[in-house]
Amino acid sequence: MxxxxxxxxxxxxxxxxxxxxxxxxxxxxxxxxxLLFHVLPTPKPDPSLELDVPHESWESLYxxxxxxxxxxxxxxxxxxxxxxIGDTSTEIIRLANIHQADLIVLGTRGLQGVDRIIADSVxxxxxxxxxxxxxxxxxx
Length: 140
Prior knowledge:
The chain is of the alpha/beta class and about 140 residues long. The chain has one domain: 3-Layer(aba) Sandwich (Rossmann fold). Helix content is about 35%, strand content about 20%. It contains 5 helices and 5 strands. The two termini are about 30 Å apart.
């Protein structure tokens, strides 16, 4: 299988490193386009936040995710980054369609049974709906 375009969906948690390391098991051409991708959840007003108590701003959340992606980008020659806002599985699938990706790489926490159903597994949704192959990396 020739991989011309790979989308790596990262949640920017500590387990994202395991997803990046999984690329080592693939034979990737120097011409392969790699897109490091993160989805920020749609902001919702939180009535429980006290107005006089500092909390992380939307801008600082975006900046922290961008900083993490730039760190990974420095490890993967020629890669690009993209951050969007929305539903995670929907946005991963949308981006794969837009870029005509050959492969999506993402992590999973390895939930099983009822826990997986309750957690509404992003990896399960992407595998079911993706327009291309999906490599799911089990993270801890």
